[in-house]
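Weekly sync, protein design subgroup
Attendees: M.S., D.O., the rotation student, P.L. (late)

Item 1: inverse folding check
M.S. brought a backbone from last month's batch and wanted to see whether the design step gives back something sensible before we order anything. D.O. pointed out we never logged the input encoding, so this time it goes straight into the notes. Structure tokens as presented (134 positions):
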């Protein structure tokens, strides 16, 4: 995984250049709260945990991602739809060490799909849109 300044979110492809780009489904984009990265690190006694370790695409802060359930949201020039929680996998023990799986439980972020294509850049604001039927 690599960090980029901006990415094109495509309704047809997901995040252009991502390893899952071009695959259909509800997991085109994964998001995690920066505050949860700190919580995971604290649970494990680590100084920090990076989003890349959890294989999350986008890090946000100052918004409760769980509050997006049932909503579309704008992030930069793209509109995304909440599709579910992003649960940890068994690799968390391998990546974060003993207790990694349990440390991520409830802190893994969310999955989303791209509804309207657009560019997402570092520093873009996330705005929850009015409730929709998904």
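Designed sequence read out in the meeting:
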């Amino acid at each position: 995984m690599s960090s980029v300044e901006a990415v094109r979110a495509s309704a047809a492809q997901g995040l252009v250049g991502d390893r899952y780009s071009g695959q259909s489904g509800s997991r085109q984009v994964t998001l995690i709260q920066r505050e949860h990265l700190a919580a995971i690190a604290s649970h494990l006694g680590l100084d920090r945990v990076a989003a890349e370790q959890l294989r999350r695409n986008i890090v946000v802060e100052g918004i409760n991602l769980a509050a997006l359930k049932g909503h579309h949201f704008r992030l930069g020039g793209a509109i995304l739809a909440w599709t579910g929680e992003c649960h940890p996998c068994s690799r968390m023990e391998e990546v974060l060490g003993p207790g990694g799986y349990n440390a991520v439980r409830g802190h893994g972020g969310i999955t989303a799909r791209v509804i309207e294509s657009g560019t997402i850049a570092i520093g873009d604001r996330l705005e929850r849109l009015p409730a929709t039927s998904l």
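Discussion: The chain has a mean pLDDT of 91. The two ends are 30 Å apart (CA to CA).
Action: P.L. to compare against the previous round before Friday.
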